[in-house]
Amino acid sequence: xAGTVTCAQPQDEHDERKLVSPSWLRxxxxxxxxxxxxxxxxxxxxxxxxxxxxxxxxxxxxGLKDDYLFSHIPGSVFVDWTSDIVSKSSGSLANLIDExxxxxxxxxxxxxxDKTVVIYDLGDMLYAARLWFALVLYGHPDVRLLDGGxxxxxxxxxxxSDDSRCMLTLLSEFNPERTNPSMLMSMSDVLSAKTxxxxxxxxxxxxxxxxxxxxxxxxxxxxxxxxxxxxxxxxDGSGFLPPSQLRQVFEDAGVxxxxxxxxxxCNGGVASALVLFALxxxxxxxxxxxxxxxxWNEYGSHASKPPIGNSxxxxxxx
Length: 318
Description:
The protein is an alpha/beta fold. The chain has helices at 22-28, 65-70, 99-108, 126-137, 149-155, 187-193, 205-209, 243-253, 271-281, 295-299, and strands at residues 19-20, 33-36, 39-48, 55-63, 77-78, 117-120, 143-146, 184-185, 198-201, 212-213, 225-226, 262-265, 289-292. It is globular.
């Protein structure tokens, strides 16, 4: 398609059709659409149970638009992950908006399907992966992430700007040839498919074990594999592990990436998108990747579904 750019990649480096370096983006800046989706999840108060061990963790979801207005990659537009792409009617903090609303959001920011999109956040890759998932779900054919985000861009000495583009000049048509609605799963979808799939819990081990919770109950979905999404990233904050190390992390966790589809969940479908993007980097087909959007925010508040790993259900995953 017009505006699409391609390159070959050396062995054990990521495909630049999926994950790009700051130098790649600097050279292609005039040819691509760049989206800033910086955000945060701030931990607030802990509310301990009577046992003094398990606790409910209060959190605050934030989009960092003020940071964008102060300084961003030249030519980028801003998407607030907490409001611009979140359904107001779902009752959840993070469930995605529907296809028509998403199309309008992208068109207002000048994002079309005939131009490569590069997304960045601060470098935790969390919010960039969430927007990648939404764009792929709703049909954009060429979406890439900036490895290491704005932090790595700035460390390498590339310029930033405080000029914001006028939204009225950015209108475009977001008209995908096909969408991928099956990538988004409901709770009933997950419960009927999980025995035939890798089911990955992308949250921390404490949340998986039910010690920390952000819903009514703690624990994890029976049969889920614990794989903290931070294990997929370099410790120095410069982005994703190289392909060989990524593959090893999945294998060590017991994820069969080549012969089973994968369903991922977290608290609200965000960290799970990072796990799915990592599998995408390993060339797992998109039609084998599924995101449980309601995630633990929904499942952990559903009284009829048993969690595993908390004080009520301390035994195994049977």
